[in-house]
Write a structure and sequence with these properties.
The longest helix has about 120 residues. With about 625 residues, the chain is an alpha+beta fold. The two termini are about 100 Å apart. Helices cover about 40% and strands about 25% of the residues. Helix 1 runs parallel beside helix 3 and helix 4 packs antiparallel against helix 5. Among the domains are: about 90 residues; about 290 residues, YVTN repeat-like/Quinoprotein amine dehydrogenase (Methylamine Dehydrogenase, Chain H, 7 Propeller). Necessary for sperm flagellar function. Plays a role in motile ciliogenesis. May help to recruit STK36 to the cilium or apical surface of the cell to initiate subsequent steps of construction of the central pair apparatus of motile cilia. Pfam families: WD40. Interacts with SPAG6 and STK36.
Length: about 625
């Protein structure tokens, strides 16, 4: 509890705070002591209440925010007084009272001289001055009051001199900085001029290159018609050459036949003329012939008969009146909704190396798979038991295709050959040799008399099964021909190539009738839909394109990449397109809605895919040597 003498406690507190804020920082303790003596002293007294409260109520403790009630004065009057004093103190502090500043005292003469000598470094003179000066003061010869103070002008002069020295130093520093900045500016300007000249030269070279490029484009455009005409002439000449070779072979055959007839006629005349004279000698010769000579003569006659029969084998004729496409009626009758909810059902491990192709029998539930282990196998469905295994190729197999009747199989291989197999016996009945590099694909004509093959040697060939020779070679692609297929029930061929084009050929003449452009990467496979209205193709970046075969125009392009699309195939209705992808996913495209469904199950790359006849089962082959069934 505060006891006050002659001055209110609030005024003392305000003065104390004012003095503490303005004077204690300056170190003027004497002014503070004088002010306290003038206003009166005060002291604090602590009182402790020892009596306990009569009631048992527990009071909550009031937090100490900005003020507190002194201990022992917990009555309402004291609390109100403390609040008022707090408000008064706040108002006084907000007024920002400014105390008068002390007048500046000029420097004394002796201090001035001492400071001057110290600044000049005259220590010995300073020692002599101080010893003589204080000696005079002690003797009383000199009075300090009469000496006086140093005029302000000298003090200001020294301050100005010091400031002048500092400014000169700063000026020198700034001059050096300015010189350095000037040098940097000149250097940057030179670099700017150099880069500007370099940029102008590059712009000139760019404009020159653009003009040269435009000129080359115009020059190339002027050559395109000539190149097109030369290509057409080249195809025409190839056609004429082929026709000429056919006519030559025909004429040679006729000449050889006439020569044999003439020889027989001459022999017959020689027989009839001396018939009566040499009859006995002939009998004698026959009677004198031994068994060895007789066997040699019979072997020669049999060989002559075989050679004559093979020479008389004629080339097959391409059918002119083709029967209508039976798949058109099948597509019309199949009105059931398309199936997309395939689930992995079985896994058949058939090959030690990747599976390159699977193909369905045209009439039965039989599946053929070809692998890079040089084997092809015939599977019985749905159990997947191996019915027949064929071997004879000396390198990996790339493709296989059933004969329309289903009793023969054609296979293509990396050993540059195409082989025909009898499925009843499992024997190779014919081998076509003529390609110079690996054969990628093969396909049967609907009549069953021709097989077409495509190869890495940039060509395709049409083979005659009856005459056992190549009837025609298709030239035109500039890179590997990756797939080939006959249009259903026609003489039209479709090929896809690594030169990013699709080509449509007339098998009878070997002429390319149309080329389709649009793919930006190598085309791996192309196929007709069952009705023959569309073409589906896929390339090495997973882009699948649909083409209108009647208008020869693209319909839609679907990017399922970046994994390559290895093979595409339609279901029997032509409403679902399956694609085997390089990432092991089988993509199913709904051609009606455009939706894409995915089948996950292959552990590695998927190479081939095919539907069953009713579309209820899907078969796929992968690089792990397995064939998987989805239903």
């Amino acid at each position: 509890m505060a006891a006050q003498r002659g001055i209110p406690s609030s005024a003392v507190r305000v003065l104390e705070e004012a003095l503490g804020m303005g004077l204690t920082e300056a170190g003027d303790a004497r002014d503070t002591a004088d002010a306290v003596a003038a206003e009166g002293a005060y002291y604090l007294e602590q009182v402790t209440i020892t009596e306990t409260s009569e009631d048992d109520y527990e009071y909550e403790e009031i937090p100490d925010d900005n003020f507190s009630i002194p201990e022992g004065e917990e009555d309402l009057a004291k609390a109100i007084q403390m609040a008022q004093e707090q408000a008064t103190d706040t108002e006084i502090l907000e007024r920002k009272t400014v105390l008068p500043s002390k007048p500046a005292v000029p420097e004394v003469i002796e201090d001035f001289l001492c400071n001057f000598l110290i600044k000049m470094g005259m220590t010995r003179t300073l020692d002599c001055f101080q010893s003589e000066w204080y000696e005079l003061i002690q003797k009383g010869v000199t009075e300090l009051r009469t000496v006086g103070n140093v005029p302000d002008v000298y003090t200001q002069l020294m301050l100005l001199e010091n400031e002048n020295k500092n400014l000169k130093k700063d000026l020198k520093h700034y001059k050096q900085a300015a010189d350095k900045a000037r040098e940097d500016l000149l250097k940057i300007q030179k670099e700017r001029d150099f880069h500007r000249m370099h940029h102008k030269r590059i712009v000139q070279e760019k404009n020159k290159l653009i003009n040269d490029l435009k000129g080359l484009k115009l020059h190339y455009a002027s050559y395109e018609p000539t190149i097109r005409v030369l290509h057409e002439k080249h195809h025409t000449l190839l056609k004429e050459k082929m026709l000429t070779s056919l006519e030559r072979d025909k004429v040679v055959g006729q000449i050889s036949g006439l020569q044999e007839i003439l020889k027989n006629v001459e022999i017959g005349h020689s027989y009839h003329a001396p018939e009566m004279k040499v009859g006995r000698s002939r009998e004698k010769e026959n009677t004198s012939e031994g068994p060895t000579q007789r066997g040699l003569r019979e072997a020669r006659e049999q060989n002559k008969c075989k050679t004559k029969m093979k020479g008389n084998t004629k080339d097959s004729e391409f059918p002119i009146d083709m029967q209508p496409n039976a798949n058109l009626n099948v597509c019309k009758e199949n009105l059931s909704p398309a199936k997309f909810d395939y689930k992995l059902k079985n896994i058949f491990r058939l090959h030690e190396l990747p599976v390159s192709c699977v193909s369905m029998h045209p009439h039965k539930d039989i599946l053929v798979s070809c692998g890079e282990d040089r084997l092809w196998k015939v599977l019985g469905l749905p159990k997947g038991n191996v019915l027949l295994t064929g071997f004879g190729h000396t390198d990996w197999l790339s493709d296989c295709c059933f004969h329309p009747s289903g009793n023969k199989l054609a296979t293509s291989s990396g050993d540059t050959t195409v082989k025909l197999w009898d499925l009843c016996k499992g024997d190779c009945i014919l081998t076509f040799e003529g390609h110079s590099h690996a054969v990628w694909s093969c396909t049967w004509h609907s009549c069953g008399n021709f097989v077409a093959s495509s190869s890495l040697d940039k060509t395709s060939k049409i083979w005659d099964v009856n005459s056992e020779r190549c009837r025609c070679t298709l030239y035109g692609h500039t890179d590997s021909v990756n797939s080939i297929e006959f249009f259903p029930f026609s003489n039209t061929l479709l090929t896809s190539s690594a030169d990013k084009t699709l080509s449509i050929w007339d098998a009878r003449t070997g002429i390319c009738e149309q080329s389709l452009y649009g793919h930006m990467h190598s085309i791996n496979d192309a196929i007709f839909d069952p009705r023959g209205h569309m073409i589906a193709s896929c390339d090495a970046r997973g882009v699948t394109k649909l083409w209108d075969f009647r208008k020869l125009l693209p319909i839609v392009s679907i990017d399922i990449g970046p994994s390559p699309g290895n093979e595409v195939n339609f279901d029997s209705s032509g409403r679902v397109l399956a694609q085997a992808s390089g990432n092991g996913v089988i993509h199913l495209l709904d051609l009606k809605s455009g939706e894409i469904h995915k089948l996950m199950g292959h552990e590695s790359e998927a190479h081939t895919v095919v539907f069953s006849h009713d579309g209820e089962i899907l078969f796929s082959g992968g690089s792990d040597g397995t064939v998987r069934t989805w239903s």
